[in-house]
């Protein structure tokens, strides 16, 4: 029987991701597994546009504020689920291509189950799988649970 010990939940902090977090919490409680929530910031602050640049100091400050805001958001998402208070939960925020960072996190932490929402914040259509979820499903070396 499959008994996950480390569960990764990529989150964009949407209501769709809340469903995946809830499902992962239920599974983690059942198998006494560790839970890892990961938020990936895709587009960090750009220093220059076509004809205008901002200082490196301001870019650094904005990136720092963006990371802290994301950390706060992921903590607030976890707080929505008081039933998870007795679980071991690790949260992290990274920058980069979401599916690449998710797959890298899976390998680095020895994850044996990824629980991901089939739709993210873009939610183009109810019945289409999101591109991040599709890439994770195709590239994952462990089991992946898609949550509708």
- Give the DSSP E fraction (strand runs of 2 or more residues): 15-25%
Q: What is the level-2 CATH architecture name?
A: 3-Layer(aba) Sandwich
| Global mean pLDDT | 89
| Shape descriptor | globular
Major β-sheet annotation = 5 strands, parallel
Total strands = 5
Order of helices and strands: EHEHEHEHE
Percent of residues in helices: 40-55%
The tally of structural domains comes to 1
CATH class: Alpha Beta
Count of helices?
4
Helix/strand structural class: alpha/beta
Kindly report the CATH topology.
Answer: Rossmann fold
N- and C-termini, Cα separation = 24 Å
Radius of gyration: 16 Å
Strand arrangement in the largest pleated sheet: 3-2-1-4-5
Q: Poorly predicted ranges (pLDDT <50, ≥5 residues)? A: 123-128
CATH homologous superfamily identity: HUPs
Characteristics of this structure?
alpha/beta, 5 strands, 148 residues, Rossmann fold
Chain-wise SSE layout:
Elements: E1 6-10, H1 15-31, E2 34-41, H2 56-79, E3 89-95, H3 98-109, E4 113-117, H4 131-139, E5 143-147
Parallel strand pairs: 1-2, 1-4, 2-3, 4-5
Helix pairs in contact: 3-4
